[in-house]
Queue: 3 jobs
Job 1
Amino acid sequence: MSARPFHLGWFYSKGFGPKAWKHQWAGPKSAVARFTKPDTAVELARAMERACFDYFMIEDSSNVPYTYQGSHDAYLRHSVDTPKLDPTVLAPYLIAATEKLGIVVTCSTTEYHPFMLARKMNTLDHVSEGRIGWNVVTGSNDGGAQNYGRDKQYPHDERYDRADEFLEVAHGLWAGWEPDALVLDLEKGVFADGDKVHPLHHEGRFYRSRGPLSAPRSPQGSPVICQAGGSARGQAFAGRWAETIIASASTPEKMKAYRDNVRATAAAHGRDPDQIKILFLVSPTVDETRERAEDRYRRSLEIDDNEVEYQLASLSRQSGIDFSQFPMDEPLPDTLVSNGHQSMVAQWQGRVLADVIRGNPLNSGSNAFVGTADDVAAHMDEVMQEVGGDGFLLVNSYFSRRYVTEVCDGLVPELQRRGLTRTAYEHDHFRDNLMAF
């Protein structure tokens, strides 16, 4: 058994949008058509809280992509990363349906002004009574930039330079109200102490903001900062700001190397590395017998023509490179250059394109979590012991209610029985639960 328990989160891939609409367990057309309603996410949040997950992270992007073949047709035909509704509108429904679960919303630093987003997060933390988190993204697709009046996204490293200053401004605004600035003295008629509320007067390279925020300090003081940068610049940003990180690696050795690097970067910024919880994306296949699980896993790797186009369109969106230009049976160039997700593109260079789209890096090789609940729990334990921490972020592209039940009511109880994950929340606030071990 591991020396200490690890954390669990859920990566709500494809954001606030349709889920597994072609899957046999998706339900009737009438149910699929309700993707614009909060029902599915609320059901998942309740199941996650029952299983004592740390947080529910809602992925997002704000454009209908057109990178593949220069058209949005494939994206709309297959629902590739579109459509998506605003996760900050979904969040209050999840907050109302739960009591302890952390709710993390994705918002881009290239699509907001720091004051606007600092105010939004402050409000969400108040209404959730201290359970909100912010997944900080910098934007990667030119289509998203064009929706906001620019021709293309800023260069990769400049996006992180802007994000650094964005976080400086946001944290300055969140700290503008001292913890005891709100007086509420009915006898003296004093609502708040003006001496304890401070303008920011930020004048930077990219942003200006006077401050202070127009609301008092929230229960956590600031949202829990989540981030998912795989590039060297992204990892540097994470080491400075992140409290939990979404990470992807195909082997325990690579997971450990990534974790060690981020922790070293955090220490270089004067931070306690233990205050960063790195959760690795995994997609377990759990069934009543090992044979049934292995059969389901094999079938999950089978890709028909529609799935090939889906995968090519998805790769194109993430990278900003139109993958329709490359032969399926030849190695990709070693010179691929991306202004999007650079760490992903680096993994694809030199590989045969057909192998790239048929691979399943979240659940392959030594990270193939396949079997009974007991098998998978034991394997997760082994991996965490080798990596050193901090936990796993569940993700399933073909999301279904069946999968939620298999994880939350099948796998997690086995993890709890082994003492690997919590059986109750220790605290009321998201950050306190995340940092409890």
Note: DSSP finds 16 helices and 14 strands in the chain.
Job 2
Amino acid sequence: MTQTSTDKAHTPFLSRPGVRRLMPFVLITAIALVFIFENRTSVEIRLLIPMVTMPLWGALLIAWALGILACFFTARRRSNRHSKRPR
């Protein structure tokens, strides 16, 4: 009778390439969100022409979200450009 082995080489969770690439993002995001939500005072912000009074955490959260979007689109554009290169 032939035995089939179901024991595959188990790689630790933190040594996987996808997890190692994601860890700095998770760490920086956690620190940024703590910083954002600790700043709860209201501030006046000039948006080109109007003056807006809003909580500082809201302005920081908007800036953080725009930065994440910029990184996402830049990384996606870079990967598309490299994938179209002839081999």
Note: The helical segments are 17-38, 56-83.
Job 3
Amino acid sequence: METADVAVIGAGIVGMSTAYALTQAAPGTTVTVLDKEDGPARHQTGRNSGVIHSGIYYRPGSLKARYATQGAAEMVKFCTAHDIPHRVTGKLIVATEREELPRLHALVQRGRENGIPVRELGAAQIEEYEPHVTGLAAIHVGTTGIVDYTAVTRTLARLATETGSARIRYGTQVRAIHRDGAAVIVEPTTGPPVRARAVVNCAGLHSDRIARLTGDAQDVRIVPFRGEYYELVPARRGLVRGLVYPVPDPAFPFLGVHLTLGIDGGVHVGPNAVPALAREGYRRRTVRPRDVADTVTFPGTWRIARKHWRYETSEIHRSLSKRAFTASVRRLLPEVTPDDLTPAPAGVRAQAVLRDGTLVDDFLFAGSGPFVHVLNAPSPAATASLPIGREVARRALAAVGIGAVSSGP
């Protein structure tokens, strides 16, 4: 049996940031990271649009607001220090209809409350930043950027293991967790069990299942939403210089179809957000009966459906109709045609839902005793991963009585 002070389940960016933070905060603390895949960042981390979010969208004082604004600055510094490709591009949030103008103004106020510099633009000023984008008004957020989060995750893994006190076991799926006195035994499908003093659950799309193995989080369920992307064909990439977003609908935790310049020079368009029939359902035809059953037997799912059916109907329509998807893009970028868009890999958002149908809007940490669960960490978790990792590490170290993580990077 392998022994460790802390076992971390999940090798996405949050899990690797936690492992790194543990080795930095308490040198000599032994850490074992377990992941069922053959490498890091295989799911949410490696299947997003690579944006370093500013934090402008999030309720002042919330964990998302605090960690995203702090994390954006730290991410740029981290990437600079470790030669990870990144760019601070800035972004536009564009109102294309009059009813969006009050929401745009509210974002300006929220940005200022969160300490984020924003510039308000009239219709004519949008062209200074994006000559092919049209709208009634916009705001420019200068602290937004782009990065390769898979490269960040690999770097965190390297830094953690270089200390000599952390190891990573890929291809190792957790099947059972049980207490043994003061210790916790984590039983994988392959390789030896891990005897740990604390267990950190950063399993993303499967975080609720891992929590239930410990007896926790009975009233939380991960409901997967597939985010489907297109990208601009190479000849049309010049239509976009940076990042262009619509004004989001505050009633739903998704940002709408937007345009994102990638670190590789490509331009992603999307995502929409449609219910997935598998937690790793990156294709429409992927169906996992267990995942479907987990979703449809949870009372919160039906409460979401009753509340948001109109929104989801439009999302599904865009998923099934390229012409409808293009029409949503043309609100921001009128020159786009269906021929300018080619399919790109999809992602799946691990959205935590409560039994009463509440879509969890903030990062959600839970657990007691030797268990720390990260139950809701969708976007902007990659941006916020460094401060999230320190917070999770602090909780894990407190559980084993080793010490506390400093508040700095």
Note: The chain has ten helices and 20 strands.
